[in-house]
Amino acid sequence: MTQAFAKVTAIRGMNDALPGASVRWELLEDNVRAWMRAYGYRNMRTPILEHTRLFTRGIGEVTDIVEKEMYSFTDALNGESLTMRPEFTAGMVRATIEHNLIYDRPQRVYAMGPVFRHERPQRGRYRQFHQIDVEALGLAGPDIDAEMIIMVARLWSLLGIKDVQLELNSLGQSEERAAHRAALILHLEAHKAVLDEDGLRRMYTNPLRVLDTKNPAMQAMADAAPKLFDYLGEQSRAHFDGVCARLQDAGIVYRINPRMVRGLDYYNLTVFEWVTDKLGAQATVCGGGRYDGLIELVGGKPAPAVGFAIGMERLLDLWGQYQPETPQTECDVYFVHQGESAQRRAATLAESLRDAGISTIVHAGAGSFKAQFKRADTSGAVIAVILGDDELAAGAASVKMLRSQSTSEPAGQQQVSLDNLVAFLKEKVK
Ligand code: HAM
């Protein structure tokens, strides 16, 4: 007797996109490709697996991602330490260095695909999720930072999304951060009594993150902490002002959030997030900024860069609130047939329809006309084409409009000669 096999389910926090939902994913991906083309960004595909040290070095040892969220393992076949990418940027940078891309000329690139973080799953927070990631490598000015943000604003308007707010900050340069950090540590030391366990642990390793706390007992301490903004030098301020001026040119409203710290260590100067109150606790749809030190940090010649990533699940959730309807049609034309010769004829006719750009399903197997029509109807097809003995004898097919396209369209059935069928249907489905 065979042993019962325990049902296998998907891994927690990793979701299936079934055909009904996938329609919207594809629609989004189509929109993203067109949107990227409009700004001259080209697609780049990097592996999901990278050497662990790329991320520990690139993202930073003392970040939530590296400390506790990476799917890392030792490859049993050769002992290498590997990690499933928790983000795109490090891998994109690795690839551009490895293939000498940015020394040639600046690169505007993007990617879409799955990334992995071992977080506690909830709405908008998953362990496998998807990002649209956009990077401009080899460009230093505030013009490109502004372009990044303006580009995202265009995506919102293309998709009809409102109610997303832009938050902006500058993290300055490393010397400025070092001076601020020293002042901040003094502040934290003076308020040690209110720090929680995380705060105490991070006080010397990542004091900025201590301010990012949600602990109400620490809010007053965080509010009174020295602001990085006050430690910015002239150049950093000028860069930030340059970004702001261009956002104003574009009519983009922003809020300066001096407390914004991103969860990755590689940023300098401009950082930004787009947030919304329409997604519950996971409010950030898009995050990014400038990372001029990363390329050198992971082994390249120094070069500036800026980028952002959008969480696709969050974006789809948000988009769905503005556009709840998605077309669910499987095909334009559904072939209904009776008898083997009709089925075979339908199969060859269907190929001619596909040649003409008409998407077509031929009912598979046999079945009563009634059952086949039911399938035709649920397929969402506009037209059913019927082939039976009578039709074949007459060298014709019966064509039935399943959904009246206009009020003048008769909903009935009509015979069309097989010679004319493709041209006739093309006219009807266009
Ligand atoms: P990030 O802020 O870590 O940035 O992630 C970007 C976006 O991914 C977030 O704003 C959010 O929409 C989405 N996201 C993050 N974690 C999850 C999760 N567990 N489930 C669902 N969605 C999530 C980066 O990853 C940087 N690499 C962005 C960047 C590109 N900076 C410069 N270039």
The CATH homologous superfamily of the largest domain corresponds to Bira Bifunctional Protein, Domain 2
Report the mean per-residue pLDDT as an integer: 94
**Counting H and I runs of at least 4 residues, what is the number of helices?**
17
Overall, the morphology is elongated
Bound ligand species: histidyl-adenosine monophosphate
Strand content: 15-25%
Major β-sheet, in short?
Answer: 8 strands, mixed
CATH classification, class level of the largest domain: Alpha Beta
Would you tell me which CATH topology of the largest domain applies?
BirA Bifunctional Protein, domain 2
- By DSSP, the count of extended strands is 16
Report the CATH architecture of the largest domain.
2-Layer Sandwich
Percent of residues in helices comes to 25-40%
Could you name the ranges where pLDDT drops below 50 across 5 or more consecutive residues?
Answer: none
> Structural class, from helix and strand content?
alpha+beta
Number of domains: 2
In words, what does this structure look like?
Helix 14 links the parallel strand 12 (333-337) and strand 13 (360-362). With 430 residues, the chain is α+β, with helices and mostly antiparallel strands. The strands form 3 sheets. Strands 1-5-6-11-10-9-7-8 form an 8-stranded mixed β-sheet, with helices on both faces. The radius of gyration is 28 Å and the shape is elongated. It has helices spanning 19-38, 52-59, 64-69, 89-98, 101-104, 142-159, 174-190, 197-202, 207-211, 219-223, 234-249, 294-297, 312-322, 340-355, 369-378, 389-394, 421-429, and strands spanning 42-43, 49-51, 71-74, 81-84, 107-116, 128-137, 165-170, 254-256, 268-275, 284-290, 305-311, 333-337, 360-362, 383-387, 396-401, 413-417. The chain folds into 2 domains: 19-172 and 232-320, BirA Bifunctional Protein, domain 2, CATH 3.30.930; 333-428, Rossmann fold. Helix 6 (142-159) packs parallel to helix 11 (234-249). Helices cover 40% and strands 20% of the residues. The mean pLDDT is 94. The protein contains 17 helices and 16 strands. The longest helix has 20 residues, at 19-38. Residues 87-89, 117, 119, 124-126, 129, 131, 133, 135, 263-264, 284-289, 291, 307-309, 311, 313-314 line the site of histidyl-adenosine monophosphate.
